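At this stage, I needed to go through a protein sequence along with its fold in token form, as given directly below:
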Amino acid sequence: MHDENATPAPDESAEGHTSSDGHSRRTVLRTAGLAGAGLGLGAFTGGTAQADTPQAAAAEAPTRQGETMVGVPFERRSTVRVGIVGLGNRGGSMIDLFLAIPGVKVVALCDPVKDKTAKAAKKVTDAGQPAPATYTKGDHDFENLCKRGDIDFVYVATPWDWHFDMAKSAMLNGKHVGVECPIALQLDQLWELVDLSERTRRHCMQLENCCYGKNEMRVLRMAHAGKFGDLLHGAGAYNHDLRGLMFDPDYYEGPWRRLWHTRLRGDLYPNHGFGPVSNYMDINRGDRVTHISSFGTPALGLAEYRKANMPAGDPSWKETYIESDRTISLVQTAKGRVIRLEHDVSTPHPYSRINSLGGTKGVFEDYPERIYIEPDHTNDEWGDFAKYADFDHWLWKEHSNPPGGHGGMDYIMIFRLMQTMQLGLVPDFDVYDAATWTSPVPLSHLSIKAKGAPQAIPDFTRGLWKKARPGVDSEKPQA
């Protein structure tokens, strides 16, 4: 269905920013700081958790500093004014989608690489909008963009190292913010974003485009209609061979993404699989994830690729990879359901997000899409998922051929987000979802270090998960 199988999918975040020596100054600075910290377990859990105390990562929730953001609508506005931070692979393409939506103005752009900023600014003027303000003066010029008084929403598409700082700056300056995956990389950072969203009354969202995939939204509506019966299990993944891209000096500048394989052993990118399955199971909306157990293979793939493809003297030969070639995690929910997550970007594998859901009446599996539910199917033979098109979400019925990449789900996501802001609606997902979907990054690392011992996943809603509420399976607005 989607186009990821045919071409590399630049959905991970924008590329980094290159200095004169071909390396990202942002990444180099960040890497130096993390290496200096020793990369102990506590550095990625916000505490002093050790491998022999697997539950230490989920200490009691910090005291709430403001009111909950559950069910809080945006302020209604006819025009949404957007500032974009990061104009590489992801941001440089997503700007086209913001510009394609009526009532959206791109008023400011930020990227230290001036050529990228100039190219994006031209897209704005070519679309008939006024020339945007540009911020290109170093790593922290995004702070000046966030201080502007004419921005309603900040979109962040930069290397992962900066997501937390940029989301924080946006909220502290009174802006709603949407961030590419993952929204942060440490457990204490996730809690800080939750607290800051509640304190500032600004929404902080993980812009998980796969939640808006056509198949994902059809399965979501079928699940809510009871077609799978009582839900029992689901699975999601990011299995995508990125070896060539990670060693391409022009794709992941710095090379920021490959360097994360020298830092952590766990699931670096759980959101694409975890987000949709969480929606199917109404996580944070009637159920919640309680703990995760993770296992990882040896880290061999990148070293083998380097040996076969990189010349002697290449900077990559100084790197030692520890990231498991494949991580497999099992997540338990309060209702006893099980979610399997996988991550593998270092070995040969056709693209797959797995995207599976099973219940007492049957099962759906993606890649390739197939379904078996009673009483529609018999004799243990897969059925045709296309026959369930009547369950397509209204967004896909209204936008049957959306523009943009990844089969159109990028556009559907941005259209819906801008619609909720224009109409003053509650967003489809919030900071609690962002923190939950990203929590496997630090917790899977801890679990692997602890030989698979379960790690408690915090309740970022502080008890409000028990109440059913709407999410991505939305009703079409009447306004």
Summary: The longest helix spans residues 409-423. The two ends are 31 Å apart (CA to CA). Residues 1-58 have pLDDT under 50 and may be disordered. The CA atoms of residues 318 and 387 lie 53 Å apart.
